[in-house]
Amino acid sequence: MDADMISTNICPLEWRYGSKEMREIFSLRNIVKTYIKVEAALMAGLVEAGLAPRDCVEVLEKCSENIEVREVYELERVLGHDIASLTYLLGERCGSCGGYVHLGATSYDIVDTTWALLLREGLGIVKRKLRGVLEDLADLSIRYREALMPGRTHGQHALPITLGFKLANYVYELSRSYERICSLEARLIRSKISGAVGTMAAWSNKGLEVERKASEMLGLEPHVITTQVAPRDGFAELVSVLAILASQLDRLALEVRELSRTEISEIYEAGERIGSSTMPQKRNPVISERISGLAKIMRGMVMTALENIALMHERDLTNSSSERILIPHSLVTIDQMLEDTQRLLKTIYIDVEKMSENLKLTKGAIMAEAVMIKLVEKGMPRHRAHKKLAELTRSMGNRSLEEVLEMDEEISKILSKEEIKAALDPKRYLGSYRGLIDRAIEYMGQVLKKC
Amino acid sequence: MDADMISTNICPLEWRYGSKEMREIFSLRNIVKTYIKVEAALMAGLVEAGLAPRDCVEVLEKCSENIEVREVYELERVLGHDIASLTYLLGERCGSCGGYVHLGATSYDIVDTTWALLLREGLGIVKRKLRGVLEDLADLSIRYREALMPGRTHGQHALPITLGFKLANYVYELSRSYERICSLEARLIRSKISGAVGTMAAWSNKGLEVERKASEMLGLEPHVITTQVAPRDGFAELVSVLAILASQLDRLALEVRELSRTEISEIYEAGERIGSSTMPQKRNPVISERISGLAKIMRGMVMTALENIALMHERDLTNSSSERILIPHSLVTIDQMLEDTQRLLKTIYIDVEKMSENLKLTKGAIMAEAVMIKLVEKGMPRHRAHKKLAELTRSMGNRSLEEVLEMDEEISKILSKEEIKAALDPKRYLGSYRGLIDRAIEYMGQVLKKC
Amino acid sequence: MDADMISTNICPLEWRYGSKEMREIFSLRNIVKTYIKVEAALMAGLVEAGLAPRDCVEVLEKCSENIEVREVYELERVLGHDIASLTYLLGERCGSCGGYVHLGATSYDIVDTTWALLLREGLGIVKRKLRGVLEDLADLSIRYREALMPGRTHGQHALPITLGFKLANYVYELSRSYERICSLEARLIRSKISGAVGTMAAWSNKGLEVERKASEMLGLEPHVITTQVAPRDGFAELVSVLAILASQLDRLALEVRELSRTEISEIYEAGERIGSSTMPQKRNPVISERISGLAKIMRGMVMTALENIALMHERDLTNSSSERILIPHSLVTIDQMLEDTQRLLKTIYIDVEKMSENLKLTKGAIMAEAVMIKLVEKGMPRHRAHKKLAELTRSMGNRSLEEVLEMDEEISKILSKEEIKAALDPKRYLGSYRGLIDRAIEYMGQVLKKC
Amino acid sequence: MDADMISTNICPLEWRYGSKEMREIFSLRNIVKTYIKVEAALMAGLVEAGLAPRDCVEVLEKCSENIEVREVYELERVLGHDIASLTYLLGERCGSCGGYVHLGATSYDIVDTTWALLLREGLGIVKRKLRGVLEDLADLSIRYREALMPGRTHGQHALPITLGFKLANYVYELSRSYERICSLEARLIRSKISGAVGTMAAWSNKGLEVERKASEMLGLEPHVITTQVAPRDGFAELVSVLAILASQLDRLALEVRELSRTEISEIYEAGERIGSSTMPQKRNPVISERISGLAKIMRGMVMTALENIALMHERDLTNSSSERILIPHSLVTIDQMLEDTQRLLKTIYIDVEKMSENLKLTKGAIMAEAVMIKLVEKGMPRHRAHKKLAELTRSMGNRSLEEVLEMDEEISKILSKEEIKAALDPKRYLGSYRGLIDRAIEYMGQVLKKC
């Protein structure tokens, strides 16, 4: 909520969700500005190929300066086509160079190359914020390397872990998303300068030259070949990769939501806002819940992106309306999710004492595997040891596992009291957690160097 | 594109897609206005139950008049909660009645009841426009009742139909969607006035009275029981039903897109806009393509709506952010699709001559089944007749089926030239098309009376 | 796992998931059997219309008796078409009546009418099991009507509820699904007897008669009009409605999974199986987790069903392969989910004591709203009371809310010790829970009468 | 349809779709066989780390030989757990080594490592078949490099292309999928050997050694860190990447389906099967339609895979049931699609004459852009030339564009008859198609070397 909010808005991405910087990228004004930039690069290509007069790049950059977004879209009302409207305005205002504007190009030379430029910027922001999240997670992972807590599977206490170990898993998982973004950029961030059906026919035998120069000016590699449009698998990959990232952030948010339950209280959001309009005592994990909520939006968008791949022949237009919604919405949504995650990690409250208290909740039963392993070491076959421990833990009633073990005839013959105590010590049953945390952070380091 | 477009917009539903009337319903200002309306209805419930002073309804209606949308959201910046912000403002401005505002209610009493009111209006528009589409389709179906054309399966000419028959199928299909909307309204358009966990505890033993009066004022039936929120299956049903409708409109749009192919040219969009920025000769079915494009957006949203059902316990907040996007987007999107379909049907150009010309394209092979049936009538077993015709149609080369049949020894023993001619006449092989068209239109009539 | 499992299976729906009765319905042998049944009904229609000899129905029923599934599919290998293979076999074996088999019909007259019959049976099972689930839930809701427990929002203790109240919400929610199934049957369970492009042309002017008689024999209403196939919105509605139901069962399963957490332990699955291959102490909610897992499968299938709507012209074949998978998988999956839910409800262990213990976990803070309401009753404005309670609950430290309230100067002036005690009693702050439970069960009763 | 089909099957992937080799990989028997292989590798790790006697690897390989799939699943009926059942059987049969089987491992050490092995094989097949498709496409692209045909956008004739150029686009697009598969393998095909919560605690300080040795034996890199399970983003990436590939094959199939329309007839499936059970003349593109149908199944599965990412804490079990369906279904489905595409490409009939005939359908209007460009070359501003051509093409009536141009006063002043003729020659307006085809094929070559 800020100055951007206007009372007629229906889409919360206009003001409520997403950062200003991300919204600016996909704003109408920046889209039109980038269209013009691409038209200028195209003109440079035409000039290079001898298809337009030398001075037309400079002329175009000048005469396009005061084209207003509103003009373009008012003209679109008449012409039914935004790029046609823009090129009409350029044609009118750029003197004799006007006759060379958009020459031999098709609308999607401009649109798809513009998407490439906007997505390069947008993914730049995504990567920067994801890097921030990763670094915060790595820091927390190191800080809480030794902070004991229950590991939980099926919602049940399973075995002890440390918070640092838990978080190192997120470091690994999110690094994999970073890696995927690097990988997809090479397929997605490419210029499309190839004319109406992709043959570059309008530029005679000079098409490759036009493409090379225009792409160079924009700092883009061109697509290897295209129809009227760039291949849509690139966009589907983009939205899939972002939805995977969103689902990973959802997992982290779910972690916080669960660990901040009244009964668990190990971690919670430490913001100072009103939790509830009617129950003042609550500490609602609202940032995490927003992350999980927006993740559902991201997942739904994948379907749309996948359906856009099978365009007919040299293209049909059905990707156009859907991408006008899909592309900005997916980037702004992930942007909000990353911002929220950063905010979450920077303000999260971690109650180390409560974690260690919870570890005792099962009165030692959480250590059952450790005892089982001890028994196997002493020669009991694994499946018999497993069965034994299952019986013992289920017969504990109000007693601790230590008591039960000590009182069991069979066990007490095998294990001394000291050995039982040692086997029940969570600190001694953390395996290779340190090495694994290190591996995760090292992996992150390698990935962050990739792009 | 109109006055609503502003150069910072990132969501095309703000200006490009959707009608003004639909956008107005889901605008921030109308949402806040409706929140206030629900707070007033709640106050009426409190008064009825003796929990607030008699005059507080009137007072609230007055003192809420000059609450600005912007104020609410500026306060939300501090409080982190929009309903809390609104009730704070009302509390401040409504004198002694301020102390009774929102009493015993939870935010989602207001939010969910507001959704019910907005969706009642929104679905009202959807139904009106769908009714318009249905009536136009029925009219066209009657007008082109006898207009012969090839029926096509697998993209292949199959058997003759009439355009009226084709369109009557859409009348039936879309009527089924209208029926579904009527059916879901009873589950979706309900008030939710039940407090923080749904027990109405804050109103002591007067909860049902508060609910009854408040609901009555808004003209809503209440939900039978709720948690903190109305059950989310209603929203999932809404989005599913709209996505089914969208996919049916997509099917109609696809029909137009295919029939307007250069090679077919039976039907096309008769707008007068620029078809292509570079190929001036084309008649692109851009409205239909937009319909098909937006249908992909609608389908994706179903996933989000389904995921919102499984909220934890008495609710978690993960539906909130996603529904802020989902609900307005789905209604505005379907609104644009219906508007486009109406425009399409009102301006569509139908080339009856070309249809009948295309019918001759297979030189009679399209009538193969008719001949086969004739042979069976004359005593040939069905599968032998089928095999016979398959051989004959595949051996036609450049000859017509009539010639081939006349020259075939076996056939010419069974069928006279006149019988062959008759069997090959498409007008005589349309079965019960008239009765079926009538049934479809009658079905529509019944459905449109339902709600 | 049972005799059906064979070591070459790749699909767990063949043996692991789903009941025998549901699997039998969608087995190849039953599909072929039903194809034959529909061919016989069609023959009855032909006879009725005078298009086939009187005795052919009887003949067909006889001669089809020993057609083996395997024969059909071995022939399909040659002919590339299962219905063509079946009708070929019938043609060969049914003497002179063989020549009338399938006369004038198209494959999808048989296939779609078969789907209608199989789905009528399949939905019959779904309704029976859903009814069972509803009745079990209603029973539990009555049995635990007064069993106090914390109501939870955002995972946080919010206000007291009773388990009966919680479950009554599921009674309401699932009744809505039952209602939706009743509603969709009228659109989905219909015969399709209309020939190659839906005009019934092959039956000359007798088509409506053929359709009437055949449909009557099968106990089906016919579709009002069709293309070569029944409209696919019916199948999309089916899968959507089942996915909504699945998501509701997912919500119930999530409830159990969360309430059986080590820290909460209010409810758990009481099966006797090995919980973990390595941690013998655990009580994993594996049935509930399976329900939640399969719900994800159900949701994904909605996309496929929606995409099947927009078939081209009088149909393309792209629904065929996808529905061969989609329809059986969606019915068998929901069947397993309903069976699991029944098993869950029948064996669930409910720890009433633990519930009431957990209610005390916040030392009274869960009752903050009740105190706030009391203060408002005594004349404090709502938002000031809200703020007051927020401060007090956050300053509790290790003290109980009772202590804090008693020690607060402002409060102690307004509320006596007895009033504080009363306000903090959860039993007194349950509002209209009894009436709401009754409403839910009554609603269920009405819905179950619908179909 | 083959020996695998049994009359109780409900899933067509058991026999109808997918190759034997792919089905074998995901068959129960191979899954169990691979479980055992992983248990043996784990044993090797234990031995290496000194945690099990030297001879136990050999012993285990022997004693596991005659474990029957059926035994495992019959025992699962009792134990409720497949891995527990297998390890129980191994424990029973492997003498003193039985006591070391599965020691310190968790079920998902076995399950996830097994998925990695099966997916390595499965993706191997996918890559081999995709390579085959790519090579066939490249061959066709070269063979039909010069075969003129209409390029189509919006279903409208746009500009001439060659079939080779069209197909080269698919070469590029599908190569991108191949690239994505190579890229995801590094994240997906990894062993998971880390025990109950991922810390390797049961192996004391020897965990990394156990993991290294076991992974080495299987030829796998281990995951860097895990919870109880491997991170699920890998599976989501897998299904997304396959769904993207499926959608690209869908696009190719749609190309064939459209180009084989009765009115177009440029390309069609040349199989010899019955096209229709009632219309013998038709050439239905049934392979292509099956590809498009199965693509819808693939897209739906992405949703399930994405939802599996957000598992709770160190894991919940909700991925288990869904992946048992998801993983085999997605691999077998894509396998069928690739097989179908290969069959399609190997048997496709291409009618070069018809293509060149269709090119003339618009009487030269398809060359409008070429004329426009010529006019610009001669000095007319682009947008005026565009407008001029739009007028001329719309005024053609029955005349050819050549006639219209020759008769137009303005044009005839600018262009000579020869220049008009030249501008209207499609062969001269193909731009850089040869260079672009070369680029596509070269790109494919590079990609195919990647993995």
Itemize the secondary structure elements and their pairings.
The structure is a homotetramer of 451-residue chains.
Chain A: H1 20-25, H2 28-48, H3 56-63, H4 69-79, H5 82-93, H6 107-143, E1 148-153, E2 156-162, H7 163-188, E3 190-191, H8 207-218, E4 221-222, H9 233-259, E5 267-269, H10 286-307, H11 318-347, E6 348-350, H12 352-359, H13 368-377, H14 382-394, H15 401-407, H16 409-414, H17 417-423, H18 433-448
Parallel strand pairs in A: 3-4
Antiparallel strand pairs in A: 1-2, 5-6
Helix pairs in contact in A: 2-3, 2-6, 2-8, 4-5, 6-7, 6-11, 6-18, 7-9, 7-18, 9-10, 9-11, 10-11, 13-14
Folded structure, characterized:
- The structure is a homotetramer of 451-residue chains.
- Chain A is mostly helical and 451 residues long.
- Chain A folds into three domains: 12-100, Fumarase C, Chain B, domain 1 (Orthogonal Bundle); 107-203 and 220-358, Up-down Bundle (Fumarase C, Chain A, domain 2); 365-423, Fumarase/aspartase (C-terminal domain) (Ribonucleotide Reductase Protein R1, domain 1, Orthogonal Bundle), CATH 1.10.40.30.
- Chain A is built from 18 helices and six strands.
- Chain A has helices at 20-25, 28-48, 56-63, 69-79, 82-93, 107-143, 163-188, 207-218, 233-259, 286-307, 318-347, 352-359, 368-377, 382-394, 401-407, 409-414, 417-423, 433-448; strands spanning 148-153, 156-162, 190-191, 221-222, 267-269, 348-350.
- A two-stranded antiparallel sheet of chain A has the order 1-2. The first copy, chain A, has a two-stranded parallel sheet with strand order 3-4.
- In chain A, strand 3 (190-191), helix 8 (207-218) and strand 4 (221-222) form a beta-alpha-beta unit.
- In chain A, helix 6 (107-143) packs antiparallel against helix 18 and helix 9 (233-259) packs antiparallel against helix 10.
- The mean pLDDT of chain A is 94.
- Chains in contact: A-B, A-C, A-D, B-C, B-D, C-D.
- Chains A and D meet through helix 5, strand 1, strand 2, helix 7 and helix 9 of A and helix 5, strand 1, strand 2, helix 7 and helix 9 of D.
